[in-house]
Write a structure and sequence with these properties.
Strand content of chain B: 5-15%
Helix content of chain B: 55-70%
Number of helices of chain B: 10
Number of helices of chain A: 2
Radius of gyration of chain A: 64 Å
Helix content of chain A: over 70%
Radius of gyration of chain B: 24 Å
Number of domains of chain B: 2
Strand content of chain A: under 5%
Oligomer: heterodimer
């Protein structure tokens, strides 16, 4: 029954028209639809692809830049640390130098003062001795009264006695 | 009441028409077989409905006949309606050439000669033309919207069609044919996919000018299968033909058996394509029509809701089948092309 009916029977007319319509459709769609559509779709895909690539590259660059920044920052920090360290060293050196200098200066001053004092003392003592000697002579002359004729001889005598006293004292 | 329910059920079957009058005017048994076959098979006129007084409302399509003796004849199929004969031609109702235009004698009987070349715009051809025009408008509009919007994101109808086009490219063409060669075959695959799809879908709409059984016509599927066959053979490379005529590893004495088998294989693949599409779509139409026919067979309104429910269910399946068969045909075409163009593996 199925084969008897026109359902599965060959019909040249239908084959002819189907071929004609299908080929025309294929040609028209090929030329005016599939070409532009596929081109648009693939160019959009290319664009998306490129955009993604560019974003990826930008991210990479960003990462590099960030790394660079970090390096610069670290260097700056190191620089700062070094400067601070140097400054501290310099400060300490200067401080110690200053201290050293002031100490030596004060030492010198003290030494000079001491020397001065020593000298003054010696001269003072000599003065005192002379004074005492003359006083003694005066006193002695007054006491002895004119017994001794020459002043110079008396002076010599007194000095000899004084020396003796001194050597005895030592 | 009956007319109303039948009208609703009729929406699932191609030009069911006023079933009420159809069953009445026949004054006898409702012949489900004829009813179904009339709707599924091709015809020279597009029957819309039969009125109560027995007259038909139909779109009469042009008949084009080329006769070796008398040349080209073009006239309306109205002249041949109801068994009339015109210019010595008539539509045979029985025998070997039932449904075909044949030469008749003076008494109106087939004169026994071979039928003339019938190039009429039949129902299937007309339906196919309508579908092609719709497809063309759709795709040209799509192409224009691409030109206008450039490469911005798809929107509107573009957003609906683009994934389908990309599906054909990414899931049918590229996996089967390969990245390097697929673009040559894309126009064919896209055309065949959308041609089958739109004809399947329009075949489900029961109103004129839709509802013609185009992809369920074996002649149409024959042309599509032949296209795939020709493209496959002309794309065949050395290794494809070597596999056919001297498959490596086959002993020489086996070749006389293997070569005929391989050659049969070349033809059986497109033959399966042809039959698969034809049978699936026709079967779907027959099931839907049978369910509608149940109402007239039982001559009861009670059956109508049941029929409508099942028809609705079948239509959902048919919708799936419409996509599935378009996919399968395109997939297998791509597969055959891919087999013909595959580079031999390097051992």
């Amino acid at each position: 029954m199925l084969l008897q009916s026109s359902l599965a029977s060959p019909a040249i007319g239908t084959v002819f028209w189907t071929t004609l319509i299908f080929l025309m459709l294929l040609f028209l769609l090929w030329k005016f639809a599939w070409g532009p559509i596929m081109k648009a779709v693939s160019s959009r895909e290319d664009m998306i692809h490129n955009a993604l690539d560019a974003a990826e590259k930008a991210r990479e660059e960003m990462k590099v830049l960030q790394a660079d920044n970090e390096i610069i920052l670290r260097k700056a920090r190191e620089e700062r640390d070094k400067i601070l360290r140097d400054a501290r060293v310099a400060y300490e050196r200067m401080m110690s130098e200053a201290r050293e200098k002031s100490r030596s200066e004060s030492d010198a001053m003290v030494r000079r003062a001491r020397e001065l004092i020593e000298r003054e003392k010696v001269s003072a003592i000599a003065e005192v001795k002379r004074e005492v000697a003359s006083l003694a002579i005066e006193v002695a002359s007054k006491v002895v009264g004119e017994t001794l004729k020459s002043d110079a001889e008396q002076q010599k005598l007194i000095e000899r006695y004084l020396k003796e006293i001194e050597t005895n004292r030592n | 009441m009956l007319g109303l329910t039948v009208g609703a059920a009729g929406s699932a079957s191609p030009d069911t028409g006023k079933g009420e009058t159809e069953s009445n005017e026949k004054e006898g048994k409702f012949d489900a077989n004829t009813y179904i076959m009339d709707h599924v098979s091709d015809s020279h006129e597009w029957h819309i409905l039969t009125k109560k007084d027995g007259t038909n409302v139909a779109i009469y399509l042009p008949v084009i006949i080329y006769d070796k003796n008398s040349g080209l004849h073009i006239f309306s199929s109205e002249k041949l309606a109801h068994g009339h004969s015109y210019k010595g031609y008539s539509i045979a109702h029985e025998g070997k050439y039932a449904g075909k235009i044949v030469r008749v004698n003076a008494d109106g009987h087939h004169d026994g000669s071979k039928p003339p070349l019938d190039l009429s715009i039949t129902k299937a051809v007309f339906g196919m033309m309508v579908a092609s025009v719709i497809l063309l408008l759709l795709m040209l509009g799509l192409a224009r919207s691409y030109k206008r919007s450039g490469i911005s994101a798809p929107k509107g109808f573009q957003g609906f069609l683009e994934p389908v086009i990309l599906f054909v490219r990414d899931d049918i063409a590229i996996p089967n044919i390969g990245e390097s060669k697929y673009s040559r075959y894309m126009p064919y695959l896209l055309t065949v996919f959308f041609f089958i799809l739109i004809n399947n879908l329009l075949g489900m709409i029961p109103f004129f000018p839709f509802g013609a059984n185009v992809t369920g016509n074996v002649n149409v599927t024959f042309v599509l299968a032949v296209s795939t066959f020709l493209i496959t053979q002309f794309s065949g490379n050395r290794s494809y033909w070597r596999d056919v005529f001297a498959a490596p590893g086959v002993p020489l004495w086996l070749l006389p058996i293997m070569i005929p088998i391989e050659i049969i294989g070349l033809f059986s693949k497109p033959f399966a394509l042809m039959i698969r599409l034809f049978a699936n779509i026709t079967a779907g139409h027959i099931i839907v029509l049978s369910l509608v026919a149940l109402i007239f067979i039982f001559e009861s309104v009670v059956v109508a809701p049941v029929s409508i429910f099942f028809v609705l269910f079948m239509d959902c399946i048919e919708l799936l089948v419409a996509f599935l068969q378009a996919y399968v045909f395109t997939l297998l075409s791509a597969l055959f092309i891919g087999m013909a163009t595959a580079e031999p593996e390097h051992h």
